[in-house]
Write a structure and sequence with these properties.
The complex is a heterodimer of chains A (138) and B (442). With 138 residues, chain A is of the alpha+beta class. Chain A is built from 5 helices and 4 strands. In chain A, strands 1-4 form a two-stranded antiparallel sheet. A two-stranded antiparallel ribbon of chain A has the order 2-3. The two termini of chain A are 38 Å apart. By secondary structure, chain B is mainly β. Chain B is globular. Chain B has 3 domains: 96 residues, no CATH class; 164 residues, Oxidoreductase, molybdopterin-binding domain (Sulfite Oxidase, Chain A, domain 2, Alpha-Beta Complex); 112 residues, Immunoglobulin-like, CATH 2.60.40.650. The chains are: A alpha+beta (138), B mainly beta (442). Chains A and B meet through strand 2, strand 4, helix 2 and helix 5 of A and helix 1, strand 3, strand 6, helix 4 and strand 9 of B.
């Protein structure tokens, strides 16, 4: 199993329940396909704690002039979010960077926006005239 | 500029992890899906086949992972199985997680399994341990009595309520926008349908006793930004909506606890509304006596106040409003572009539909690019806000290319549009879906 779920605390000991195998933390003792609300069965519910590990990203920004600024991006999100954007114009990259700064508080100084935009445009850029070509029917 | 440029970088990581060797494997498909760049190549038959027919026949060892190519620029995605409580998912972003449901999952039934249900987090500071004994759901603000409910309180002291409802990201299908827009570049798999069980929000609010001047209800979960400057993710609903008897606090999803990544232990369920309102790891409900001005409600998730939230790219001075009710959609689930059908042979086509904020009334099928439409047969009704199965039989009479289309109409009369909508955020796509097939002589 790839799951990294581990149970901590109490585990509800009803062996027939599938839910428990995935770190299930709540279960009831009968089939749960009922479609109507009912007030019965509440006493059969048990909660138990859940603890998981989240995987770390293996995506990385490619090297190049400006890549030294990308740790600013990685404070809040992995590189894959940037690399999986559609190719953007340089102006669109400037807008994205400024959104990260103004809306989400990215601590990138204003005088480094252009440098980072140049880099992002170089690794995943599109000139305005490319747009149609990128997005034509396929 | 070459289209594949960004893809190169992404494949670097794949190569480092030994994924590139078997890459071609993902292009093998069963009969109905033969073209490499077809619209739903991400149906991921490959990963399904990887554990059954093809693998068995060839005696293969499983590759470390599979790559798929979504049909838009920079659409290469890795299929990952390393997220807790999740099976094979389409990786859009590792941190904070954005995981898409492989589209083939929707062919298996109208309820989306919890371990294949898509995942979308805004902020990376997500608790990875939940102490269910210590957890409290607080209800505060303009109420007569503040509440601090344990999970057992919620289960035992409120009438259980169940409802089937589609949870769909506002930006589901964003990757298909033309021209493209930045954001989470989903294909059509940022949605799922589940049977939710929990307590009605109305009952919880009634216990707290909402005061007369209350206006909105704001919901907050345990996730926070990594840095204090990032606005905490919160969403608000109008009080009347919050008290409609359908908005609920779910503690179970398809008969099991929610996966942590889908919001364990509690998630707000807002039937018929986009998922941005379905706050995960819900632990705080605040009743407000004025309009919520927090970033995520007042400034994010805004749509043009136009039909289908549609504008012309570059259009200025459009009134913007918070995204709200979902619109109808329908999909083919067992056929995709490039499928080969035979003259005179009957093929059963099927898929799913949902009505948005109203039930599916009818689903229409066209086998001639939309000139003529006929009603599809509908499967059992499992709830007005859920997925509904549709099915048609098609017996082509002559060879050649054929364009199949599917559209849903809901009981409020809303019908999927012929033209795709466009807006700068990539929200609310619901254009009629189509599939191009080739009919061949027997």
């Amino acid at each position: 199993m790839n799951l990294k779920v581990r149970m901590v605390g109490r585990v509800w000991a009803v062996p027939s329940l599938l839910a428990i195998t995935l770190g299930g933390s709540l279960a009831w003792s009968q089939a749960t396909n009922s479609t109507s609300a009912t007030s019965t069965g509440a006493s059969a519910w048990q909660w138990s704690n859940v603890s998981i590990d989240l995987p770390t990203s293996d995506s990385a920004f490619p090297p190049g002039d400006g890549a030294e600024l990308t740790p600013q991006c990685l404070i809040c999100h992995s590189a894959g979010m940037v690399l999986r954007q559609p190719p953007l114009t340089r102006d669109q990259w400037v807008d994205e960077i400024n959104k990260m700064r103004s809306a989400y508080g990215a601590p990138l100084p204003a005088d480094q926006v252009d440098h980072l935009a140049d880099y992002l445009f170089r690794i995943n850029g599109s000139s305005p005239s490319d747009t149609a070509a990128h997005d034509g029917d396929r | 500029m070459p289209r594949g440029r960004g893809v190169q970088h992404r494949s670097d990581s794949a190569i480092r992890h030994g994924l590139a060797v078997k890459r071609g494997f993902c292009m093998h498909r069963p009969t109905l899906m033969p073209t490499p760049m077809s619209r739903r190549s991400f149906l991921l038959r490959a990963s399904a086949a990887g554990t059954t027919g093809l693998m068995g026949a060839w005696g293969w060892k499983a590759p470390a992972a599979t790559l798929v190519e979504l049909p838009f620029a920079n659409g290469q995605r890795e299929i990952v199985t390393n997220f807790p409580q999740k099976g094979a998912m389409v990786l859009l972003r590792t941190r904070p997680p954005l995981l898409e449901t492989a589209f083939e999952v929707f062919d298996h039934g109208v309820f989306t399994p919890n371990d294949r249900f898509y995942v979308r987090w805004h902020l990376a500071n997500i608790p990875t341990t939940i102490d269910t004994g210590a957890f409290r759901l607080n209800v505060r603000g303009h109420v007569r009595e503040q509440l601090s409910l344990t999970l057992d309180d919620l289960v035992r002291e409120f009438q259980p309520f169940e409802i089937a409802a589609v949870n769909q990201c506002s930006g589901n299908s964003r990757g298909f926008f033309k021209p493209r827009v930045p954001g989470g570049e989903w294909a059509n798999g940022a949605m799922g349908n589940a049977l939710w069980r929990g307590a009605r929000l109305k009952d919880v609010l009634d216990r707290a006793g909402v005061k007369a001047r209350a206006l909105q209800v704001r919901f907050n979960g345990l996730d926070t930004g990594v840095i204090p400057q990032t606005p905490d993710f919160m969403k608000s609903l109008a009080l009347d909506h919050a008290r409609d008897g359908e908005v609920m606090i779910a503690y179970a999803m398809n008969g099991e606890p929610l996966p942590l990544l889908n919001g364990f232990p509690l998630r707000l369920v807002v039937p018929g509304w986009y998922a941005t309102y379905w706050v995960k790891m819900l632990n705080d409900i605040e009743i407000l006596d004025k309009a919520d001005d927090n970033f995520w409600t007042a400034k994010a998730y805004l749509i043009p106040d136009t039909p289908y939230a549609n504008v012309v790219p570059g259009q200025q001075s459009v009134r913007m409003i918070p995204i709200n009710r979902m619109v109808p959609r329908s999909f083919f689930t067992n056929v995709q572009d490039g499928a080969v059908l035979k003259v005179g042979q009957t093929t059963k086509l099927r898929g799913i539909a949902f009505g948005g904020d109203a039930a599916v009334a009818k689903v229409f099928f066209s086998s001639d690019a939309g000139s003529q439409w006929k009603e599809a047969r509908l499967g059992p009704d499992r709830g007005k806000y859920g997925f509904r199965r549709w099915e048609v039989s098609l017996r082509p009479s002559s060879p050649g290319p054929q364009r199949l289309m599917i559209k849903a109409q809901n009981t409020a009369g809303s019908v999927q549009p012929n033209q795709a909508n466009w807006n700068g955020a990539g929200f609310m796509r619901n254009v009629i879906e189509s599939v191009s097939v080739s009919v061949q002589s027997v």
